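pls ignore typos typing on phone
6-diazenyl-5-OXO-L-norleucine + seq
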Amino acid sequence: MTKLQDVLDEIAREAAENGDRGEVAHYIPELAKVDPDQFGIAVALPDGQVLTAGDAETAFSIQSVSKVFTLSLALGKLGDSLWARVGREPSGNPFNSIVQLEQEKGRPRNPFINAGAIVLADLILAGHQPREAIGEIVRFIRYLADDDTILIDEKVARSETEHGDRNASLAHFMRAFGTIDHPVDHVLGVYFHQCAIAMSCHQLARAGLYLASQGRNPLTGAQVVPPQRARRINAIMLMCGHYDGSGEFAFRVGLPGKSGVGGGILAIAPGQASIAVWSPGLDPVGNSKLGTAALEQLARRMQWSVFGA
Ligand code: DON
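k done
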């Protein structure tokens, strides 16, 4: 039988030798400073083991990977009424696109494009001050990873706030349609801080384990979401988790996944594993270049694709 640790070591070795790493995100200046020559991978298994290779203990900015956790949190608060505010169809557009919002009357296509995630932040804000809502998101992620050391990188949050005109446009546009209830600066404050949460691959793989285990976190025994909800979140990750690169990711990797412009990807092999991979260099649509290649190889060698061996 293929030994998982051997596969991970080999993937990390090949990544270290690969010079074709893509470009780090430049539109958030603090992310542009990250050393592109890093690569980490961690696989959390339902029995609680976590196997790692490369820079798996280095914290990075999880960015849009946070949207998986805010979706889980917001669904817990609102249940299926959430879907009145946001759709669940792939957008086929870049993550920060505004074009569909006008045609579709301010209702974002899905919870993983920026517009959709901004709506989730608005929903989580209900009844709270922004600081409390941010605290709730961080506490939820710490609870998922069973790790109280997870923090927000305030420099990244500030950097994004200072260069957040595009997200501010999306938020104002949606507020004009009545899709979001709270003041735009409050909503964006929550959104920018959730994106600036820093986690290692090790922590991220643990945090995603409930999605590989029918909604139950085997590390703590907690039922985080009902099995049906875990299945549905995986479906949205598969269809929408890589924006206009989602089809390509499904074609190459065959797993539900969510990427972030910090270069992280959380991928779920249902019933098998929660996988976090990180390499800061991105492909032209904003997904980690080496991270995608690593997951392609891992899924193939472990026969984990949801579409069969
Ligand atoms: O809103 C932004 O632009 C970033 N905070 C998050 C974008 C992101 O990670 C998109 N993922 N590939």
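The pocket of 6-diazenyl-5-OXO-L-norleucine is lined by residues 63-64, 95-96, 114, 160, 167, 195, 259-261, 286 (CB under 6 Å). The CA atoms of residues 119 and 180 lie 6 Å apart. more later
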